[in-house]
Amino acid sequence: MKEAAFIYDEGTLLRVATDGITFSPTRLEYTYQLLKAYRAFNKRDSVIVVPQKASEADLLTFHTKDYVEAVKCFSRGERLGEALRFNFSDCGDNPVYPEMYEVSTLIVGGSLKAAELVSEDKVGVAFNPSGGGHHATPGHASGFCIFNDIVIAIKYLLSRGLRVAYIDIDAHHGDGVQDAFYDTDRVLTISLHETGRVLFPGTGEPLEIGVGAGKGYAVNIPLAPYTDDETYLWAFDQIAPKLVESYKPDILVTQLGSDTHHIDPMTQLALTTEGYEGVLRRLRRLAPRWVAVGGGGYEVSVVARCWALAYGIMIDRELPDEIPRSYEDLYGLKRLRDTERPHLDSQTKQQARRFAEESVAAVKRLVFPYHGLNPCPLDH
Ligand SMILES: [Zn+2]
Question: Is 195 helix (H, G, I), strand (E, B) or coil?
Fold first, then answer.
């Protein structure tokens, strides 16, 4: 793969200041500083690219005019009485904060920049860690996501005649992206997530396979709480490579939420950095060209380590486990990879495995025939 680009602008850090714990500014800054300490940005094969704000026309490729206007006004402290209608509230997932329109358009601009660089073959892979707003809908905010930078970036790629596959490894179902392309075969969406029976947004069952021309092009692999590295990677291997290889996308777009980690406070999946790296290596192998965005992750030290590992894989660099002294002194982290695994009893592991087997079997039965693939029994 050719060069890699890391899309970064301190302007996206503003988002954090008012978002409280969930999107603490440190998520992106820690990641950037960690990669800098590893000297991951050198001019030859890995560059930092500063994004520009997306235009209103960009936003309108997916969002309604009504909604875009409302976000603009809320951002200036106007029309706040209507906030609830668009799913904003101070006590929910989507608080209004000053300049949120500007910050959100910069985030969207980052994902568009990543899509542009990759589609024009300027780099083989581009990573916008501030992106990943996979829940946002055309007309309202959802699950910390104001604008859906992923849908807007994919629409841009489609407008250039490219074929796109999307893989979402966030612990939450990628509902907003799935819904945007639910009736078309021009985007294959695959989401692995903790089952919606216990986790927001409640969707993402294998039965959700698309409608009309999109039938068979929405793929959902729900997983039980406490699913570990081994079962997660097994489920991934059963489904994703076969579908992507048969679909033959020009570009792979991935949402790289790191809230699947076992110490993430908002979810109950039980991955380690080893499992996360395992998925990233697989994504790299599958991606002809690669647009990557961030996503969830609510334990700052985990997010920084996971996304640094992800970018290391994108630039083909095995980052040493020992964290450079300059970073360790500032942020107190010593090792890049986990030193402890989650403690799971064998019954919990077996239950999670059985749940994954049911999901995988259902996807094979429901989706594989649309791709000329054999809905064969499970490979163990
Ligand atoms: Zn998430």
Answer: coil
Q: How far is the CA of 188 from the centre of ligand 1 (A)?
A: 20
Query: C-alpha dihedral over 298, 301, 306, 311, to 10 degrees?
Result: 120
pLDDT of residue 315: 96
Q: Which residues, including other chains, have CB under 8 Å from residue 43's CB and lie 6 or more apart? A: none
pTM for this prediction:
0.96
219 closest CA partner among 190, 247, 253: 190
Q: Which two tokens stand for residue 66?
A: 């009504």
CA-to-CA distance for 368 and 355, rounded, in angstroms? 19
Q: From CA 243, how far away is CA 260, in angstroms rounded? A: 22
What are 12's two structure tokens? 């996206």
Ligand 1 is an ion; residues with CB less than 5 A from it: 170-172, 257, 259, 296
Q: Which of 135, 140, 193, 261 is catalytic?
A: 135
CB 294 within 8 A of CB 304: no
Q: What is the pLDDT of residues 103-136, one digit of tens each?
A: 999 999 999 999 999 999 999 999 999 999 999 9
135: annotated active-site residue: yes
Q: Is the dihedral of CA 331, 320, 336, 104 positive or negative?
A: positive
Q: Report residue 320 as tokens.
A: 């040493």
DSSP 139-180: SS-BTTBSS-HHHHHHHHHHHTT--EEEEE-SSS--HHHHHH
